[in-house]
From TrEMBL:
<dbReference type="Pfam" id="PF05199">
    <property type="entry name" value="GMC_oxred_C"/>
</dbReference>
<dbReference type="GO" id="GO:0016995">
    <property type="term" value="F:cholesterol oxidase activity"/>
</dbReference>
<dbReference type="InterPro" id="IPR007867">
    <property type="entry name" value="GMC_OxRtase_C"/>
</dbReference>
<keyword id="KW-0413">Isomerase</keyword>
<dbReference type="InterPro" id="IPR036188">
    <property type="entry name" value="FAD/NAD-bd_sf"/>
</dbReference>
<comment type="pathway">
    <text>Steroid metabolism; cholesterol degradation.</text>
</comment>
<dbReference type="InterPro" id="IPR029058">
    <property type="entry name" value="AB_hydrolase_fold"/>
</dbReference>
<keyword id="KW-0274">FAD</keyword>
<dbReference type="GO" id="GO:0004769">
    <property type="term" value="F:steroid Delta-isomerase activity"/>
</dbReference>
<keyword id="KW-0153">Cholesterol metabolism</keyword>
<protein>
    <recommendedName>
        <fullName>Cholesterol oxidase</fullName>
        <ecNumber>1.1.3.6</ecNumber>
        <ecNumber>5.3.3.1</ecNumber>
    </recommendedName>
</protein>
<dbReference type="GO" id="GO:0008203">
    <property type="term" value="P:cholesterol metabolic process"/>
</dbReference>
<keyword id="KW-0560">Oxidoreductase</keyword>
<dbReference type="InterPro" id="IPR052542">
    <property type="entry name" value="Cholesterol_Oxidase"/>
</dbReference>
<keyword id="KW-1207">Sterol metabolism</keyword>
<keyword id="KW-0753">Steroid metabolism</keyword>
<keyword id="KW-0285">Flavoprotein</keyword>
Amino acid sequence: SAVIPAAYPSILFKGIVTFGWPTGYWFFHGIIDKLKRLIGSKSTQAMVLNAMGHDKSDGKITLEKEIEKICFNPPHDPLLPRKIEAFQKITKKLGGILFISKYRSTSVHQLGGCNASSDFSDGVCNPNGQVFDPEVPSQVHKGLYVCDASLIPCSVGVNPSLTIAAAAEHVSKHLVKDVLKYKSKNCTDFVSKEVDRNPNTEEMHDNLKTRDASYVLIKETLRGYVGGMPCTATLKMRLELQSQNNCDDWNWVMRKFHPTLKGKVGGYVVLRAIEKDKLHVLDGEVDMCEVDYKTPYTQYMRYRLLLAAASGSRYILEGKKIMNPYLFALHSWTETTTLHVTFKRIAGIFSGGAGLNLKGELRISMIALLKSLLSLEGNRRARFIYLFSLNLLRTYILQIPQENHEHSVTDSENKSYPASTLHEIKTEDGYLISCRQWNCGQNRWKLRGEVQPNPILLLNGYSTESFCLPTEPNDLIRTLLEEGYEIWLLQSRLHILNPPKNFTIEDIASYDIPAAINKITEFHGPSMKVHVVAHCVGGLSIHMALMGGYISATQIASLSCTNSSMFFKLNMLATVKMWLPLVPMSMALLGDNNTLPLLETSKASMRHRLLMSIARWIPRYERCTCKECEVFSGIFGNAFWHQNLSHTMHHWLNKQSTRILPMAAFPHLRKICKSGFIVDSKGNNSYLIHPERMALSTLYISGGRSLLVTPETSFLANKYMKLHQPGFRHERVVVDGFGHSDLLIGEESSKEVFPHILSHIRLAEE
């Protein structure tokens, strides 16, 4: 016999939070009914249908401290379909319209929150209302009781007033017993014991502690996709900042990044596709100005979070924001608001095993960033903004590099390299080239009773060494020798030992490569085939040699190319540089002496120095404190990601290996880059029209972080070969995290790249 106010069903059940039944005309009925009521021509005829019952008791009311909101997740009601069906039958009998709340089940007289349980793992209180001590599970907090509706763990199905009263009476009975027991044991009045104590003392002490601490609290909400699945991270960071005057801050930041912009992170991550509930941060660290001496001009903001799920699983989320002064800070907004993350599961009892390694990006919107700035807490907010602004000024505007440490190659490292034999070869056009041979020894295969595998010919890129690396313990030559392969490294006319003044890439294809293969054939006989591993310009020239008919595919056992093929697709910056008349202007500036000395200590003409100065000013994605590296990347574009190279490798490459740069082949290379595929020296398509000459197995490898040559190069080549040579095995691999030449000279190349080459060669041998 509950009395419902007349306005209640009119506002709630015929408002915007409802839908009606039967479908089709309930909306117009609601509008007409309201109009009649407004003009007073109709009194209300609404009646309320209410079905009471039990739900699953799995609803939750939570306080989101980060956003300061109370969130309600309603419980599941398994009988809801039957209730609605009953309502529809009644409505049909009465000839009326049924308006149902969109929220469906409505919970009244909420119960629970401090559920009573026999064990601390299933509740907050014991059956007597005493609160469990989570640090000592078998104990309770003495003197702390819960004696209201929050003790009851589930819906009772009827008005719970009497049930609540009964529970309170039960707790009170035990509370009185405990009080009497405590008084008799201590012989003192515990109530009057605390009268003289100042209740504000502890609060004042906490406030003093907070006031003395130099800190700032930052709230940040990032949204995006991880592994293609929506993800939200709500984080709260606390950075400890020490007092210092502005002048000292300026001097400190201009020398190196400020070390105190580090702190702890709390909060949670929501990734519903992996875990239904929130992933709470157990331990989190943030470094807003991380130092990496391999990339002295780049600033990083690095996050590392240890996450825990209700299921017991543990996860690690690592992310970094990369702030790079590229193209005059054109991408500064995207870089400072984009977090590149990896999400991994930690193997354990509950997770079963690792097997989860996802990557993605999370971003903070402009509105969220403004909220984050406005919600800064702590007594060092202004100092934090000042320090962070100084670091951004240094990175994007002043572009001052971090301190760097030079590394040199020791004599012992050079002497430890496997011994080799140098063969001088005279090409058909009379030019003298060389080929270096590493022989693993035939006795090894004879002892096993196996046939020695085919030798491997290595073809370098444009005047840089990618295979014979004295500083790297696991370069490709050492790796292949350990597998028992005989290796030949071609030092073509593009090599820095003796480059001619005038030549093209076509000359390497038509003269140098055939001469090298003929030399290998002299050693092993005409029936022996050769595996070819080529990089960059070496890959272009081997495709020209094959498709131009200078060598036969029957001489090649397999072909593996890194960032090169019969196609050559560059990124946007490199493409623009090739379309601009920079190469013709450079060749005109150099004149007859078109070999550019790269070493800073080399004697160079005024023309050479002018060209090197211009090259240093050309934009590139990663800048370097090494002048030789700056000149080389200014002419070509960045050939590698600096983070992938060791210090000794970088030093050896720029100070000892690449001493000069022959520019004679640049006009031909420019024509190839503008066309996007191999052409002859006159720019004619003389090669792609002969796919029948490519009857061999191929492997094309690209770097996943496009830096110079894009993965489209390997994609088009693999598609071309599968279309025209379907009878052979053709593979394509994109190695994430690598750029161009770091596919072969990177610290992790032996783990990430070389296994693909070895596998391809073994399959070809089989």
